[in-house]
User: Fold these one by one.
Assistant:
Number 1:
Amino acid sequence: MSAPTAASGQPAPPAGPAPAEPAPAASTGASPGGDASPVIDLNADLGEGFGRWTLTDDDALLAVVTSANVACGFHAGDPSIMRRVCALAAAAGVRIGAQVSYRDLAGFGRRAIDVPPGELADEITYQIGALDVFARAAGTRVTYVKPHGALYNRVVADEAQAAAVVDGIRRADATLPVLGLPGSALHRAAAQAGLPTVAEAFADRAYTAAGTLVPRGTPGAVIADEETVVTRSVGIARDNEVVALTGERIAVRARSLCVHGDTPGAAALARRLRAALEQSSVRVAPFS
């Protein structure tokens, strides 16, 4: 996901593939219903505004995506925005995920913060609980969790912070899937705790040969050409691979594909991307 201009110098979250625990067939790109067609979820970061400021075109994106990563008030979002997005998502049949972050509203959750593990676990539980109240009021519930920004990056390798995030999730709901980078400390901690893990890829970010995202400050890290974004996305969903920035073909076995909601023209690109997936015999469906 992209950050507002004030935080544009911060790194973007990495992405990559991982098996989804409750639906092994879906994690490999096959339809969980026995259909041989590949299946992929489309997720977007929504509700990323605050008060009079809005960043994401929630209405338009909810007509396209199958999962909504809703800001829970720590990096963006406020109670009224959370309530509205949950109501819209419920009406559209879109799954609601809690996008949890460090308490960093001014920095859009993009700044590295050293939070004691116990305090971080409490803040994760708090964010999930706050969003779930609005989701339940809309007739649905929070069905997965995805870290945001600096927290997403931190739990790729930081075992203590990853364990704290998992502790916070388990306290809120010990059945919630964790969307993120496969092979990460977060997914290892989640698997050890019995939480399902779901692999995520990104449509418009370049990959390293190791399968992580190229740092945002590197030339070519963000892919702006829509045709390239669509082609790469179809390749990820249908062929389970992507070409790295340095030219290598790498395996990317993702069950969910992130469409950045805060970039200009995001809704139009999401519509085009979904149409291309379906025309390529890829079934678009939620993982949760």
Note: The CA atoms of residues 260 and 266 lie 7 Å apart.
Number 2:
Amino acid sequence: MRLSVAACVAGLFAFAPAVLAQAPGAGEQLYVAPPQGWVMGFHDQQGNVEVTELVPQGQSVQDWTEMLTVQLITGKPERSPQEVLKDQVEELQKACDDIGAGATAPQVENGYDTAIRAIACTKSKQWGKGELTLYKVIRGRERLYVIARAWRGAPFDKEHLPVPPEKTQEWLRFMQQVSLCDSRDGQRPCPGQRATPGPQFQR
């Protein structure tokens, strides 16, 4: 497949807006529904940063080909989602032999500033493997939320993405269903309950 990261991302954003889920209880809440069969491999909180990592069953956070990472950074966010993603690109430039980054796609979802961006690391200097990650950043009023869906495998050329179009489309549909709401705020309502809601990330 001969597609640049930018071309891939441009094609991905032809889908409908995110579908939000009800958040029972009170407060600002993030909803993430992990892919079927995925399990939690790591969870930790250091200071104001809480990190949860999930992988397909049979994989681990030490040995994985796909991973979902959710970061909750407590404290009123000062940076925009676009700035956060720009910083992520700069960090990966230091950690990778080469990178490719799609255009940032900012939007407002349920009253919150969000942005999505795909970033390819052709070969990690630390792990010697290539990685392709789709990020979604949401700026809440109480914390910043960073959600990342990643693939890791053999090093690759950034003009030849290592995953098929169906996989990148699946990732985007997944990110569109990641949602933030606040049951205390009528301007950021929590919609009706799903039949099978994903786990809550609530603090």
Note: The two ends are 42 Å apart (CA to CA).
Number 3:
Amino acid sequence: MHKVWEWAKEKLTAQQMNNILLLSTDNEGRTVFHMAAEYGGLDILAKIREWANEKLTTEGINNNILLLSTDNEGRTVFHMAAE
């Protein structure tokens, strides 16, 4: 995960990192944050949150989008973590 992030920082703009790495969704509407909540544990969630704080701007995209976005079934990250 760290290698992918380092590569992305070298090759992608901040907007591309937002759209491609942090905010894009899979075919079930899940973001990387949903997947980390379901499968990765607290340490991975904390790292993604840290990266999001570095890259998400308050002008356009608010950090709440990571926490409040829903998948195709209407589940937020909190739902995923609680399952």
Note: The chain has one domain: 13-82.
